[in-house]
Structures are given as structure tokens and as C-alpha cells.
Amino acid sequence: MTGPLRVPPGVAAVRLPADVPPEVRRRLLESGTVLPPFTDAHVHLGLVDPAPLRARGVAAVHDLGWAPHEIAAMATGTAAGPALPRVAYAGAFLTAPGGYPGDRAWAPRGAVEEVADPVSAVAAVDRQVAAGASFVKVALNSEAGPTPDDDTLAAVVGRAHERDRAVVAHAEGPGQAARAFAAGVDRLAHAPFSEPLDDDLLVAMAASGTTWLSTLDIHGWGDPTRDHEVALDNVRRFVAAGGRVRYGTDLGNGPLPVGLNARELAALADAGLGRRSLLVALVGDEPPAGLVSFVPGPAPAPADPGPVHAAWLARATVLDLAELTNPEGAA
Ligand SMILES: [Zn+2]
Fold first, then answer.
1. Residue 16 maps to a domain
2. Which of 300, 207, 278 is nearest to 38 (CA)?
3. Is residue 12 part of a domain?
4. Mapping DSSP to helix (H, G, I), strand (E, B) and coil, where does residue 232 land?
5. Are 232 and 270 contacting, i.e. CB atoms less than 8 angstroms apart?
6. How many whole angstroms from 284 Cα to the centroid of ligand 1?
């Protein structure tokens, strides 16, 4: 039984390695479903206790804003600990002098770097890369202060791309999502929530491969706000246009569950994502090696509606293939 597991098209197939003992293999496949590992593509690990994340289905996280030396230490620590998620990180928020989130109490010293001009932008990008950053985070929040000017933003994006790093923007305030797109930003840290985006812009973003990290549940945590409605409508139209959406929660921002967020998945289903699209959003682009998701219990039928699949996927846990090959380690 080393054949490919049943994985929807669009998600890389998972094979249990040949050295997983037959009894472990049989028990897993009879009691649930094995899927590729899931990533939360927007977290702030320094604001939560990450201990429960793996057991609650999160195999990897993308930290989108923290002091570089602190998050680097956390990433190294979690690499050594079998029970914590893998961590990739952006390092500091790059922002305009006096810009968001420099004044936020939750942002520790070093979590924000002010970039006043293109020269300082290039240096700031290089510092994050030197600290091990996999992405570059830039803050374009015109509701909460100044934002980098166009030349400085262009320098951030240009330098990050020269260094082969994707740029993730926090776009908030009228026109900021459009501005991020025009500047060549690769990912929006949040599904745009400040305003309904024009269809032309949505179609252009979808065609270019711009990725939106969903973060729908931060708008009300189960009690949807006006921003939630705006974001959901944008996601619905973006998805209909073929846009790339990834599961991201902004974990650390408000009372979010530490683990897979059933409300985030339900909101994505509400936006039109079915079984396959939900899996694509959860698995992301670089699922960590050596881990799989396991969803206990019977799987919904493929034809069941998105919300049924969302509730099912939210029950996933993470299994370590190295532990599965050792029956002592297979819980
Ligand atoms: Zn965030």
C-alpha cells in the first residue's frame, strides 16, 4: 500500500513512506484521511504560546512582523522541537517614519524599521534577509499614519525581488491595495477590507498571481463587522476571477484560536471555496517536508458543500512521518 493517497487535484499528492509499518498505515487510512501539511500564512508567533499549534493542525507558519533576532531564535527553537510548527518569517515591518505599527503596544523593540527613502529601504531589506527572512513585510496603512512614498515602496519591492524574496503588504485605507499591486507587491497580508475593489483591479490581480492571505475572522471573531462583509465580498469576486487565496489568520491579533480556525475556514467556504480550493489554500505553496495532516473520522463526500468540508478540515492534526515509522512514537 505505497500508492498515492486520495488528494484532490491541485494539491501535491502525499505518499506515506515505505518504512511506515503496515499496521500504522492501515490504522491511519481506516480511521481518517491523510493530507499534505497545512500552513497558516499570517501569524505573529511572539504574541501567542505556539505549543498547541501542531496538535491543532498547523504544521507551518509564516510570521509576518516581529523583531528579526527574536523571531529567528523562535524559528531555530521550533526547528529543534518536534511538537512545534516550522517557521518562516519576514522580520521587521518596514514602514514610513511615524507609520503603522510603530506606535502599537504589541510591537516589541526592533519589530518596526522606518524607511524614509530608497537608500534606507534597500538597507532595511538587506538587514531582514541577513537575519534569515523568507519574505519582506511592508506596511501601507494610511488609516494609521504615513506610508512609504512611491519611490521608497518601489525600492523595497525592487530590492526584495533582487534578493529573491516575496513582498507582503499590509494594505489598509482607500487605494492602498491598488497601490501595493501597482508597485509589484506579491501578497496582501489581509484580504482587502477597507473598500470594495473594482472588478478590473481584481481581475488584474488574479491574472498576475497576486496572493491574498485571508484573515477574514479578525473582523469580529465570529461576530462579523462591516470590514468582514467588505473583505468577504472582495474574496468572493477575487476567487471567481481565479485569484489565489491562502489560509492566513493573523494569529496573535485578537482572540483567535491557537490552531486551525474553523471560523476562518467557514468564511472561506462562504466566499465560494469548495473542498479542493480550501485544501489549496491550506497547503499553500511550500508545504513542509516530513509532516502530514491527519483528519480523523469519515471524510465528507466530494459533492458536499464547502462549509461541510471546512468544518471537517478544521479537525486536522499534524503527524510527523519520522514518528510514524517508529511505532513507539506513533500515538
Ligand atoms: Zn499581522
1. no
2. 278
3. no
4. helix
5. yes
6. 18
Element (H, E) at 319: strand 317-320
**Would residue 212 count as lying in a domain?**
yes
> In the 8-state DSSP scheme, what is residue 196?
P
For the chain, the domain total comes to: 1
- The DSSP bridge partners found for residue 35 are 293
pLDDT in tens, the chain (331 residues): 233 334 444 565 577 888 889 898 888 888 888 999 999 999 999 999 999 999 999 999 999 999 999 999 988 876 555 578 999 999 999 999 999 998 888 888 899 999 999 999 999 999 999 999 999 999 999 999 999 999 999 999 999 999 999 999 999 999 999 999 999 999 999 999 999 999 999 999 999 999 999 999 999 999 999 999 999 999 999 999 999 999 999 999 999 999 999 999 999 999 999 988 999 999 998 889 889 999 999 989 888 999 999 999 999 999 998 888 875 644 4
Distance 179 CA to ligand 1 centre (A): 19
Would you give the DSSP letter of residue 50? Answer: -
**Structural domain contains residue 11:** no
What is the distance in A from the centroid of ligand 1 to the CA of 252? 8
Which CATH number covers residue 112?
Answer: 3.20.20.140
Residues having C-beta closer than 5 Å to ion ligand 1:
250
How far is the C-alpha of 31 from the C-alpha of 40, rounded, in Å?
25
Q: Residue 198 C-alpha to ligand 1 middle, in angstroms?
A: 24
Ligand 1 centroid – CA 43 distance (Å): 6
Contacts of 196 (CB under 8 A, 6+ apart): 230, 233, 234
Cα(151) to ligand 1 centroid in Å equals 24
What distance in angstroms lies between residue 42's CA and the mean position of ligand 1's atoms? 6
Strand partners, 34: 294
Domain containing 183 equals 38-292
